[in-house]
Design brief:
Helix content is 87%, strand content 0%. It has one domain (5-82). The protein has one helix spanning 5-77. With 84 residues, the protein is an all-alpha fold.
């Protein structure tokens, strides 16, 4: 007629075990997704940093070339400044 006390305890124990396993699996999945997300963010940041470095290198090179051209033009126009 009625349930035995052992069956009630066993189903409660099984319920706790299932809940614990579900929590463990969910935590594991979230950790893995978090690390993948973090890897992607770091990779994106490094890529943007390398692009910025390349742009600044090109700008510095262009500024140096413009300075050399400006110096040549100034010396050509004002040759008396060269003591030559």
């Amino acid at each position: 007629m009625g349930e035995r006390p052992q069956d009630d305890a066993r189903s409660h124990s099984c319920s706790i075990y299932r809940r614990l396993m579900l929590t463990f699996i969910a935590t594991s999945i979230l950790y893995v997704c978090g690390f993948v997300f973090l890897y992607g963010v770091i990779r994106l940041a490094v890529r943007h940093a390398l692009e910025d470095i390349e742009v600044r290198r090109v700008q510095a090179q262009r500024a140096e070339e413009m300075a050399m051209a400006r110096d040549r033009a100034m010396l050509r126009d004002h040759g008396f400044l060269t003591n030559g």
